Amino acid sequence: KNLTIGKNVFFNSGCRMQDQGGITIGDGTLLGHNVVLATLNHDKNPEKRGNMHPAAIHIGKNVWIGANATVLPGVTIGDGAIVAAGAVVSKDVAANTIVGGVPARVIGNVEK
Q1: For residues 3 and 18, is the Cβ–Cβ distance under 8 A?
Q2: How does pLDDT run across 34-53, given as a tens digit for each residue?
Q3: In the annotation, is 53 catalytic?
């Protein structure tokens, strides 16, 4: 009930989706091996660490997320973007942008 998947979406082996906060994946998106989509975060206060804070993940159309990438709660990835293998995406990614690293940062633009 918390997961919406578009048409022609490809999941490679080992993908994990923790969808309590909600996940939307647009048409034509590709997810590589062992991609993690995590929509819950723990409270920063040590005395409330068991409290969970859900935030939705929105992935646009024709996005490519490389192997072993992690997308954190509340992130939106724009249409046509590429997330490099092993990246940890903690902030929104603009359409047609390439991000990589830990934390993920812009490393290029998609050429059309």
Answers
A1: no
A2: 999 999 999 999 999 999 99
A3: no
